[in-house]
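I had to read the description of the data format several times before I understood it. For illustration, here is how one protein appears when written out as sequence plus structure tokens:
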Amino acid sequence: MIPDYKNESLSFEQRARDLVSRMTLEEKVSQMLHNAPAVERLGIPAYNWWNESLHGVARAGVSTMLPQPIGIAAAFDEELLHHAADMISTEARAKHHEFLRQGDRGGYKGLNFFAPNINIFRDPRWGRGHETYGEDPFLTGRLGTAYIRGMQGNDDRYLKTAACAKHYAVHSGPEEDRHKFESVVSQKDLRETYLPAFRDCVKEGRVASVMGAYNMVNGQPCCGSQLLLEQILREEWKFDGFVVSDCGAVNDFHLYHGVTKTPVESAAMAVKNGCDLECGKMYGNILIAFQDGLISEQAIDTAVFRLMMTRMKLGMFDDSGSVPYAGIPYEVNDSREHREFALEVSKKSLVLLKNKNGMLPLNKDRLKNIAVIGPNADSRTALMGNYFGTASEYVTVLDGIREAVGSGTRVYYAEGCHLYRDRMRGTPGDTLSEAVSAAQRADAVILCLGLDSSIEGEAGDASNEYASGDKPHLDFPGLQQELLEKIVKTGVPVVLVILSGSALAVTWADAHVDAIVQGWYPGAQGGRAIASLLFGEYSPGARLPVSFYVTAGELPDFTDYAMKNRTYRYMEKEALYPFGFGLSYTTFEYSSFHLSRAELAAGQDLECSVKVKNTGSRSGDEVVQLYIKDVVASVTVPRWQLCGFKKVYLQPGEQQEVCFKVTARQMALIAEDGSCLLEPGRFELYAGGSQPDGRSFALTGSKCLKAVFEVFGTVQVVEY
């Protein structure tokens, strides 16, 4: 007779409880480490929980490489991200089962993944911001949920893979101090900005796991926070998955935060407050903590039960014929279809920021000489971002342009300068003159500047000579600004292509360059996508998921987590390029903004619709955006905030009606004490292709449509 935990006719809950009941204390504790050993007598195989998949299966050999998440976010397209995550999880399954066939159970080869990163990109100086979906809680929540659903699949019983929402919570730099930093945040900002995306991923996305952050929040370390892990995550949001620490975070309790004195106390604190799995080595102390009376066996059982439940949902204890995803063939990994899709995602991620006098698209048939210049022009690193896999093909911007133009066009190439140092190999500025010479011989210059993950990223990965991954300023580093000015001075038409994971202060470029493209870290096919945009094979339709500030000087202190004067929702000065902004090669017109009612009782939802028409001569994507403003709120609220978006593709002359639902929850505000209240009063809705701010109107020439509605009744407390 087979034991209950192997009986596929029973529920996973019954089976997991039976399995845990058969394990010794030592065996249970061993399964709480990220590199869990096999328990051979029970048929539990070894399993390494550490795995990455931000924009493709990472660190496990060849896979399809998509743009970095900040670029995918620029598409403002939930369906696209769902499709992307479904592709990633398909390759993950294909690779995992092939690894098993080869007897390989090493790191980065499992079925759970430490993604998505849904932290709010509150400050453009944060080095890891390009891992996120931008600065807006609503956009981040929608995209995070789409990613999770694509990763976890739609089977009623089994998970395709197990996603992980990270880093919970209030985490966005500084990288250099992340192990000892305390994020001090008001209850209002906590509930209004830093938690909503996590709430959406838990309650709507049904994410399988949540990763705690390194930092403390208001006196409690995130991976041992009774408030975050027990009260909010488990009790309020009814999260039933497992919590994992960020890698090495439990060490920080005693080494840096000072909330415990020993590794034993740290391990006990984390487990007692709901951290089930440790990425690190501190949980090797749990047995001592148990012997010292610091932790109960019941707390250990609860954690191991959650971990075994996840492994069972992934099909690890069942016959492969029972698991619908176990038969995905290895051949789908890095397939032509997947690489073609990656190219489409790259195209949809590129934001056209400026296009004076219609300089773009370039007519390649009329260009006899093109100069491709800059430290990112032929850089693979600038394609990749971080947490990447290995692509079977990398197409840099230089590669893409060479491929796109005919044999009759001469392509000059010059690095111009180092990415961030003052020289390439010799004396300061040693390659500037060569770049000028190349520009002088060209009909047009494609100037590729920006950053890459060697200086913008995670502490320990990015170069410590550049602020441990964070940006000390928003200017182009090194001699890039000097290179830019020298090339513009030649008088040759310049297209500036910025490859970076974050907003830079490109005020001088905006004033002196005719065309600017924000390319992010566009993935292995990025060069083809950029060339395709430059030469007009498609019309760009992406929008900024972050604000581009005029200077870093207008930003609050980097360590200040208050939202005052941060992001489009609270910024006090005009942006250079606003959140939600992006240009196209065609034009769109909005009309007939209609509300289902102008008056409604508190607690009721509202439906609205708007018509959008392609009034230009080319087909293209348009991101229809809906913003809500609480006009008479009793507390400080955002200027307005995104409450709906939809990507539509329209042929010239084609019109489409786009419908939205504004929920009562979206009309609610967060009071100073963190409570969620729906107040009666006047609200404004704005529909259009951008924010309803003056700068967006100046850049696009198109105003958002406005509608007003009233909410009647008494103040109601709304579920958060």
About this structure: The longest strand covers residues 620-630. The mean pLDDT is 97. The radius of gyration is 26 Å. Residues 336-543 form a domain with the Rossmann fold fold (CATH 3.40.50.1700).
